[in-house]
Design brief:
globular, seven-stranded mixed beta sheet, alpha/beta, about 675 residues, 20 helices
Length: about 675
């Protein structure tokens, strides 16, 4: 076992920083863990200390064993040295160990030699080893000799153990920063070919990224990547290995069109054609020790800026009653951006997850239809690609593995679920590192809606017929026979898994499959990086339902533009507390409905950010009065007092002919028939 390639890890942190919880999560996937407790029992009358120890004990799973080393500080070195390669040790913590080491009952003792022995044992250990230690070196120097001796000894122990460990993490306020190994910064470079005429993109095609999850071969590490337009014609799709926890995995490169401010010179090529520009950045994989498990503490949107932004709307110089339901968009953007004056989303990326489901859930779906949709999007055609182009959004296409029939067995093995979650998380990280401000989650796949209905039935207790939409054929006809087959497949799958624990990963493995697991990872990764997500369709909402048990904060970063008339999406929205912004019942395919509504959402944010405060509330009214609109430059208002009206009442016309047509004068008093 390893934590992203490491087998010895030191977790540092302050008091109540969450360091113990982080350390426990890093070994949660081990079948058995030996918990090495170093803290002394303390004063029997110290009930607060006893309660702390009891809390730690209650948090440990029943499969873990506990070993106490408080009686002898040398025992910790012996335990680490004797542990074998198939064992997992969690030492919590070195602060307690140093306390025992400095206890007068163990003096005289050579503290320096004992710390050196501990570091040597850690360096030579073959077991999976995680050590927890308090970081007290950031506080003031203690005023007592014993306090100074403790901080000096603990500082020396932390330095020695950190040097011996493969990795070191610092936890501050529940947030983890990885100190060792140092993560390389991503390289940002725009190749010269990106501005050449032959790299000009299609004007009506969306920027796109095509990624393969598990099919294409990986390029050799020392092979130089091609640049310019040739990279898009010759480079093979990158694959994601099964072990996505490895630290040397490189995420796919992002392709963007060349944004030329000046039109390119005319070429023999037909207008609107051409290759995509070369990749603008290559994002190296950063080993993060990522462990996705229930109960993760991820960031929440700002509780204060959202209501402040909505309250501010009432002060703006709007001629009508306001933005109506779109006030939710302003509040959502303000909370996720952390400002009471949110800005419209400029950088948007669409993640299109393409993955089919076998068995009865795909009844009535034309063979190869989802692959055709993905090819269409890659070529810049179809509703999704054209709407992405209209919204100046990147389009990233990710292929998920085919899911097995859920009525017969699990849709996906457990290890592939873990891989899909991590891969989705890192796709969101890649988007955040590229400056993406909004993700649109889309999906296409045979049987995806029925699989999402199965997930919804398992998580919300719904009956399959009530959350499964009608099956529409290519000719626009309703196929009730295929709908019944899908319902039966979902019903059989729920019956097969009736004794399942119904935990998040179990649901993804048994019912959800690769596309929903990957979408769940995207939502979690986006939440961790504070990137809001537009949901659209059954797969995205099913992933949001599953993500509740992994990190309840994820749903607060999601926005649902329209339910599309789908019963499963409606129910999931009710459970998640997401109110659809419009009720257009658009059904353009997952992702396309969100993109169709995006200009409206941007318009609301633009008004909220740019309109001034109403003059009656102290706003600037500099446009009142003003100069003449005639354009002659004369000051027609010169000499006019403020009591005079801005517009003079027109004088009545005197007697004379009045023209009602091009050449027919009308005398005064004559009625025009």
């Amino acid at each position: 076992m390893s934590v992203d390639g490491w087998h010895t890890l030191l977790v540092l942190g302050g008091i109540r920083s969450g360091k113990s919880e982080i350390a426990e999560s890093l070994v949660a996937d081990a079948p058995t863990v030996r918990y090495v407790a170093t803290a002394p029992a303390g004063d029997p009358e110290d009930t607060e200390w006893a309660a702390r120890l009891a809390t730690h004990r209650a948090r440990r799973p029943g499969s873990w064993t506990t070993e106490e080393t408080a009686a002898d500080p040398g025992r910790l070195v012996e335990v680490i040295a004797a542990a074998g390669p198939n064992e997992t040790l969690l030492v919590d913590d070195l602060g307690g160990w140093v306390t025992v080491l400095l206890d007068p009952a163990h003096q005289p003792a050579d503290d320096t030699a004992t710390i050196a022995e501990l570091a040597a044992a850690v360096r030579s250990s073959t077991a999976r080893l995680v050590l927890v230690s308090p970081e007290v070196g950031l506080s003031l120097v203690p005023t007592t000799p014993l306090g100074r001796a403790f901080t000096d000894a603990l500082g020396a122990a932390n330095r020695a153990v950190a040097d011996a460990c493969d990795a070191v993490a610092l936890v501050v306020a529940g947030q983890t920063t990885w100190l060792k190994p140092a993560a390389p910064a991503p390289a940002h470079a725009v190749p010269p070919a990106a501005t050449s005429p032959e790299a000009e993109p299609s004007r009506d095609a969306a920027p796109q990224v095509a990624t393969s999850w598990a099919t294409a071969p990986r390029p050799a590490p020392d092979q130089a990547a091609p640049t310019g337009a040739a990279a898009n014609r010759t480079a093979p799709a990158q694959a994601v290995p099964a072990d996505l926890g490895a630290g040397d995995v490189t995420l796919p490169e992002v392709l963007t069109p060349a944004a030329a401010p000046v039109p390119a010179p005319a070429t023999p090529e037909a207008p609107g054609t051409g290759d995509w520009a070369a990749p603008t950045m290559a994002l190296p994989m950063i080993a993060t020790g990522l462990v996705i498990q229930p109960g993760m503490e991820l960031p929440m949107p700002d509780d204060y800026t959202g209501p402040q932004a909505v309250d501010r709307l009432a002060t703006l110089d709007l001629p009508g009653a306001g933005l109506g339901v779109l006030e939710q968009v302003v509040g959502f953007a303000a909370a996720t951006q952390g400002t009471s004056m949110p800005r419209p989303w400029d950088s948007v990326r669409v993640l299109l997850i393409q993955g089919d489901h076998e068995g009865g859930v795909s009844a009535g779906a034309p063979a190869g239809e989802s692959a055709r949709r993905a090819r269409q999007a890659r070529a810049g055609r179809g509703a999704l690609a054209r709407l992405a182009a209209e919204n100046r959004a990147d389009l990233q296409i990710v292929e998920a593995p085919t899911s097995a029939p859920i009525e017969d067995g699990p849709a996906l093995p457990g290890d592939e679920v873990e891989a899909a979650l991590r891969y989705g998380w890192r796709l969101a990280e890649q988007a955040a590192d590229a400056g993406v401000q909004l993700l649109v989650l889309a999906a296409c796949g045979a049987g995806a809606e029925a699989a999402a209905a199965a997930v919804l039935a398992a998580t919300a207790g719904a009956e399959p017929p009530t959350v499964l939409g009608r099956v529409i054929t290519e000719q626009g006809e309703i196929d009730d026979a295929a709908w019944m087959v899908r319902c039966a497949a979902v019903r059989d799958a729920l019956h097969r898994t009736r004794r399942s624990t119904r935990e998040a990963k179990d649901i993804l493995a048994e019912l959800g499959g690769g596309d929903i697991a990957l979408a769940t990872g995207v939502l979690l990764g986006a939440t961790a990086r504070k990137v809001p997500v537009l949901l659209d369709g059954p797969v995205g909402t099913a992933a949001a339902m599953v993500s509740r048990d992994l990190a309840g904060q994820a749903r607060h970063w999601c926005l649902l533009p329209d339910h599309g008339g789908r019963p499963g999406v409606r129910l999931a929205a009710d459970v998640l507390g997401l109110t659809p912004l419009v009720d257009l019942r658009l059904d353009l395919g997952e992702g396309a409905t969100a993109l169709a509504a995006l200009p409206l959402l941007r318009s609301a944010l633009t008004l909220a950010a740019t309109l001034p405060v109403h003059p009656s509330l102290g706003g600037d009214d500099s446009d009142a009065g003003g100069t003449s609109d005639s354009g002659t430059g004369d000051d027609s208002d010169a000499g006019r007092t403020d009591d005079e009206p801005d517009f003079a009442e027109p004088e009545p016309a005197g007697p004379g002919p009045t023209t009602i047509g091009s050449d027919e004068p009308v005398s005064p008093g004559r009625r025009a028939d």
